[in-house]
Write a structure and sequence with these properties.
This protein is about 30% helix and about 25% strand. The chain has about 350 residues and is α/β, with parallel strands linked by helices. The chain is globular and about 60 Å long.
Length: about 350
């Protein structure tokens, strides 16, 4: 089969690789019908996650058709159309029993496209198929459901819920890429007074408006701290959500929030960020970090099936599977191309 293979920082190839096979009785082999590229894949290619081995097939998001199952799989059948979650869950360990699947101790967590071969391929082996895939409602398209593989639950859980967004809050979201936009749309569900989108790309700020941001700041031209303080009578935001993953944006979030405020970090960081405790210790701030657990995926699935949420607006570009390298080029230059989420279809 063909797959997108990582060959070290800055190097990737669309090439022939062996087909995946069942290794454990809880595995499923899924034909990938639709997949996408995540900002985390770009972090891997930059060398920000050195634990990813050369030769790894990237990708951790897919919708596909089950082609084979292990003898221990009970709830998934050959021919089923499924969402492949970015998080695999053994379902038995302490953390899985607490709903913290991202911290799975039984061989799960974020492993696809990271510790094992991923979804940017014609087929993928999915461990723990019963607890790591979701049946796709007939009324929902592949590309709509694909947004629930990672970005929607990530923005919602790690940004909105960790940040404890409440009615009347002023929420500043730093970064208007796919996960930042997910955080914006999730925050709107809690009736905030303001959602302020902060980014350096005008195209992404325009996208942020369509996802619910009522105010935008281009921090290449404006001072976002001064903007937010003026908006809040000098106090600062109640919640700042970091959705980029570089030191400057994390430090900016700590400056944006008021005393007693919350900073919810979503971004994948490849370099150290300074925590200025010399000025932060007195301000009663709460800083949260997190890998998505995907405990919200069933709820988001119901909302999508009822058309309460609209995920199709995330999709900006379409490609065929054999155009994977072109898709990477467009997504990697999002500030120029206006790419939000690319959909790659078999």
């Amino acid at each position: 089969m063909k797959a997108l293979v990582y060959h070290g920082p800055g190097t990737k190839a669309w090439e022939d690789v062996p087909d995946p096979v069942i290794r454990d009785d809880t595995d499923a082999i899924v034909r990938v019908d639709t997949t996408t590229i995540c900002g985390t894949d770009l972090h891997i290619l930059k060398g920000d996650t050195p634990e990813v081995e050369t030769g790894r097939i990237l990708g951790h998001e897919a919708v596909g058709t089950v082609e084979a199952i292990g003898s221990g799989v009970k709830n998934v059948s050959v021919g089923d159309r499924v969402l492949v979650s970015c998080i695999s869950a053994c379902g038995r360990c302490r953390y899985c029993r607490e709903g913290r699947y991202g911290q799975c101790l039984g061989g799960g967590g974020w492993i696809l496209g990271y510790m094992i071969n991923g979804t940017q391929a014609e087929r993928v082996r999915v461990p723990f198929a019963d607890t790591s895939t979701y049946s796709v409602p007939a009324s929902v398209s592949d590309e709509e459901i694909l947004m629930l593989a990672d970005i929607l639950p990530t923005g919602y859980e790690v940004g909105v819920l960790n940040g404890r967004v409440r009615p009347g809050d002023t929420v500043a979201v730093v970064g208007s890429g796919p996960v930042g936009l997910s955080a914006i749309s999730g925050a709107k569900m809690y009736s905030p007074a303001h959602v302020v989108a902060i980014d350096m790309a005008d195209a992404r700020l325009e996208a942020a408006k369509t996802f619910g941001a009522d105010l935008t700041v281009n921090n290449s031209r404006e001072d976002p701290v001064a903007f937010v303080k003026e908006l809040t009578d000098g106090l600062g935001a109640d919640v700042a959500i970091e959705a980029v993953g570089v030191p400057d944006t994390f430090e900016l979030c700590t400056q944006l929030v008021r005393p007693g405020g919350r900073v919810a970090n979503i971004g994948v960081h490849g370099k150290p960020a300074t925590l200025h405790l010399e000025s932060l210790w007195i301000r009663d701030l709460t800083v949260t970090t997190g890998l998505v657990d995907t405990y919200s995926t069933p709820t988001l699935l119901r909302l999508l099936a009822q058309h309460t949420i609209d995920t199709s607006r995330f999709v900006s570009h379409h490609f065929a599977l054999d155009q994977m390298l072109e898709a990477y080029d467009v997504f990697g230059r999002a500030a120029e191309t206006g790419a939000v989420k690319v959909v790659i279809t078999r």
